[in-house]
Write a structure and sequence with these properties.
The chain contains 22 helices and 13 strands. It is of the alpha/beta class.
């Protein structure tokens, strides 16, 4: 419990500070706390049953003291064996009933905890995945959401809550002791106060060490996972020994803090246990002294000792379960923050699927970006500034540029993965957030730069982890992406079991399966980020055919790449530099360096065409519209690396396929 406690606090604070997530709720997580309480309230009837059982159990706890009173004050005085036999029979029955009720309340409490976890599991897991998709910082840090939920369930299902259900009966036992004699009651009250003070002192002295141990343990776990994932790199570069030394140093710090916590906590535990035994002995001693004085009977002396143990039982349980309770409370606070900062997606009115043919007839674009500013979560300034363009049905646009220019950031916004800081991205005239995540993903395919495959079959990965994938849709997507033959060559074909991350597949195989996943369900728009990064010539040709087929059915594609081969089917290429979209001038003639496009007003920004003459299915101007590609009066240079203009380029103004065409503005 020590390591988990600090881990939850450390990771929870990191997540709550992470920019780029919804922090509109109160910092205390009031909205999330309401969700947690609502889930707990669903088991109110079960808790009422536990409370009733606890009442009967505590009443039956008086069986022992009453039995001792009768034995010492009646049986021994009368020497009646029949009375003793009758008492033994009654006590045996009552203890049997007490044991059954105690067992039943434990079963009911376990089911209440299980119901709470089952109710919250989908919500918490969804919030974790949503945050991980929005923020790279959160994704790289260990998530404690499920561990927090399990900590609450573990406490709710364990013996810890019995201390709260039994605590209201402590005054009853203390009152009984005061009825025996006021000195016996006073000793019981002092005993309870001493044990409670020791418990609070234990918490105060060990909490900081618990946090340090948890933080070190979390860092060690995270580093271990990084080393495991990069085991091949470490082995190839001889980094294993240095990595092990670094990990050992972190784990040794965690171990030192854990030992310190154990030493201090153990000292308090021994002190508490010893003090409790001593106080029970003192109760017997006090009772004996009062019996000698003739104030009480010997039976009351024994009964008082038993009642003291029962009165202190809730405090003893609370002290024993304190680490579990502390972890559950921290888990509740962390869950409240997580749920408050990641609210559930509101129920949206279902929108009709985009109709590319109708949009083409009406001369309306399929996908638009309107003055979009996008920043990576945690960044101090937007990586993409004032990007605007319109993509008509049956067209494809390429986005080129140097590394860290903002291309992938823009691609994430176009795919709906990241929400623009300002401006909006629309699909068939509706902002992406109006579709909702499930509907948006059906209409808009996405191939991220970092290809991730999940544990499951190839068919399940293509079908986006659908447990019952449609075979026809899976095969159609694979054929569309040109991956069908490659998949059939795998052992088992579509039933081939993919390891986590796709470790057993080559980079090209993973990318082609991910490309098929992007085309699954026949989306009207696909956003492909570095789709040819790991492809050979055959894979690149398959990519070109897939984009051509998408355009043929009036779909649209956005392709982000460094190599010009990926732009073979693009109708236009835009360059991104320092977060701004600019036109790409045609490639240089042999022996000449690339030229900068002359600064122009946004109304006449040239866009290089790559795939032949203008397509009559595009807008009336025959061109993809680049809207406000550069700020008025700004630099519209848009340099293109050698060869990145793609095939079909020509000198500007020569009227050939590479000629610049005027763009429209809005």
């Amino acid at each position: 419990m020590t390591g988990e406690s600090g881990t939850s606090r450390d990771a929870g604070e990191r997540e709550s500070r992470e920019p780029g997530v919804d922090t509109s709720g109160p910092r205390t997580g009031a909205g999330g706390m309401r969700e947690v309480r609502s889930a707990l309230a669903e088991s109110t009837r079960l808790y009422v049953v536990v409370g009733l059982f606890s009442a009967f159990v505590n009443v039956l706890m008086l069986t022992g003291p009453v039995f001792m009173l009768q034995v010492y004050d009646r049986v021994l005085a009368s020497r009646s064996e029949a009375t003793l036999l009758a008492l033994v029979g009654i006590v045996a029955f009552l203890f049997l009933m007490m044991g059954l009720l105690d067992h039943f309340r434990a079963r009911v409490l376990a089911r209440a905890g299980a119901r709470f976890q089952a109710r919250m599991d989908p919500r918490v897991l969804g919030a974790i995945l949503t945050r991980a998709g929005r923020s790279p910082g959160v994704r790289s840090a260990p998530s404690t959401g499920l561990a927090d939920l399990e900590a609450m369930q573990r406490f709710a299902s364990g013996p810890g809550p019995f201390a709260f259900f039994d605590a209201p009966w402590t005054p009853v036992f203390l009152f009984a002791l005061f009825l025996f004699h006021w000195m016996l009651g006073l000793l019981a009250v002092v005993s309870g106060v001493l044990l409670l003070v020791l418990a609070l002192a234990n918490q105060a002295r060990t909490s900081r060490l618990q946090q340090e141990a948890g933080e070190a343990s979390a860092r060690g776990f995270q580093l271990t996972e990084q080393m495991r994932a990069g085991g091949e790199t470490g082995r190839g570069l001889g980094m294993q020994a240095a990595a092990v030394d670094r990990l050992a140093a972190i784990r040794n710090r965690a171990l030192g803090a854990t030992i310190a916590v154990s030493d201090r906590g153990g000292a308090f535990a021994v002190t508490t246990r010893t003090l409790r035994l001593f106080l029970q002995s003192m109760m017997l001693g006090l009772g004996a002294w009062l019996a000698i004085q003739g104030t009480i009977t010997p039976g009351i002396m024994i009964a008082a000792s038993i009642l003291l143990g029962r009165a202190l039982a809730p405090i003893d349980q609370a002290v024993f379960q304190w680490p579990v309770l502390q972890r559950a409370l921290e888990g509740r606070r962390s869950l409240a923050r997580l749920l408050s900062e990641t609210p559930e997606e509101p129920v949206r009115l279902p929108l009709p699927a985009p109709d590319p043919a109708a949009l083409r007839e009406a001369g309306r674009p399929l996908l638009t970006a309107e003055n979009v500013h996008v920043g990576a979560p945690g960044a101090e300034r937007p990586a993409v500034r004032d990007a605007s363009f319109a993509l008509p049905p049956g067209s494809a646009v390429g986005i080129a540029g140097p590394s860290a220019a903002g291309k992938s950031t823009l691609a994430r916004a176009l795919a709906g993965v990241w929400t623009p800081l300002s401006g909006r991205v629309t699909l068939a005239g509706a902002a992406l957030d109006q579709y909702g995540e499930a509907a948006r993903s059906r209409h808009l395919g996405w191939l991220p730069q970092e290809v991730v495959l999940f544990e499951g079959t190839v068919a399940e990965n293509i079908a986006r982890l659908d447990p019952r994938p449609d075979p026809e849709a899976v095969v159609a997507a694979a054929r569309h992406a040109g991956a069908h033959e490659m998949i059939l060559s795998l052992p088992g074909g579509y039933a081939y079991q993919v390891a986590a991350g796709g470790a057993a597949l080559s980079g090209g195989q993973r990318q082609r399966i991910a490309l098929a996943r992007a085309f699954h369900g026949d989306p009207v728009v696909v956003v492909l980020d570095e789709p040819d990064a790991h492809l050979d010539a055959e894979g690149s040709a398959a990519l070109g055919r897939a984009v051509a087929a998408l355009k043929a059915r009036d779909g649209a594609a956005v392709i982000v790449a460094h190599r010009s081969g990926a732009f073979a089917q693009c109708d236009a290429v835009l360059a991104m530099s320092d977060g701004a979209l600019r036109p790409v001038e045609a490639g240089p003639e042999p022996g000449r360096a690339p030229r900068r496009a002359p600064a122009q007003r946004p109304e006449t920004v040239p866009v290089t065409r790559l795939a032949g003459p203008p397509d009559p299915r595009m807008d009336p101007g025959g061109a993809l519209r680049l809207v406000r590609a550069a700020p008025p009066g700004g630099d519209a240079r848009g340099e293109a690396p050698p060869g990145d203009a793609g095939p079909g380029g020509g000198k500007p103004g020569d009227g050939g396929p590479g000629a610049g065409v005027p763009g429209n503005t809005t």
